[in-house]
Amino acid sequence: MKESDKRKISFFRGKIHLFQIKDYRVSVDLVIFLSKLRGIKSKSRVVDLGAGFGFLSIVIFKKYGCNVIAVERDSQMISLLKENLKLNRAQGKVSVIEADIRKIGEFLNRAEFDVVVMNPPFYPSCFGTDNTYRFEKDTTLKDFIASASYLLRDGGYLNLIIPSFRLYELFILLDKYNLPPRFLSLLYPTIHKPAKLAVVSAVKNVKGPLHLDRAVIVNTTDGGYTKEVADLLESLL
Question: pTM for the complete prediction?
Fold first, then answer.
């Protein structure tokens, strides 16, 4: 990768530094997602499926002090991920596994993890393929859910962020792979627009009612962040 293709950015008042690329950058949605994670403790075994350049993995390690395994297959992302681990002194706490999640059983054991986090490609291939990292190509939402189910112990948590229009599809898959959805948060661009994204937490083989969190409004009508979101950007770490 050319040095001109990447850019160094700081987050959380300089507590996190990351190299990222033009086609795949950290958005405020991921910060909100991190604030909604469930099931993570200091001794949790956590795996980040499709870890990209490591934003989720690094922040989870910094926030909870737990070990994280970052699974990624894209060589460009792996290069950035390793640079970012060094940059944030996360080597030894965040481990990198270069693997296709569809073959996760070749690299990790069944029911080995307490928590799985994922930010899978948002859009099905029928929507287009303009952005490699936002559109499904050969790996689908079903593949991510199947891998999560394989890795989680009974009672383990799956946390993911997904476009709200895919919730029906997601819930069918969660049922198929014994991951009852237990918590749902809807993210609204503004108070006047419909929900665009959803954060879902499921618990492996533990059924129960679905708890719907209070709505998260991301932006004010004049284009700035709401107080809730602005406070998250300052205080998450």
Answer: 0.94
20: which DSSP letter? E
CA pair distance 174, 204, nearest whole angstrom: 9
CA distances 39 to 60, 84, 102, 114, Å, are 12, 25, 24, 8
Residue ranges per structural domain of the chain: 3-235
Q: Which CATH superfamily is domain 3-235 in?
A: Vaccinia Virus protein VP39 (3.40.50.150)
| Number of residues that this document lists for the chain | 237
Is the Cα dihedral 43, 174, 81, 187 positive or negative? negative
Q: Where are the beta strands (DSSP E) in 24-121?
A: 45-49, 67-72, 94-98, 113-118
- 123-169 per-position pLDDT tens digit: 787 776 566 677 888 899 999 999 999 999 999 999 999 999 999 99
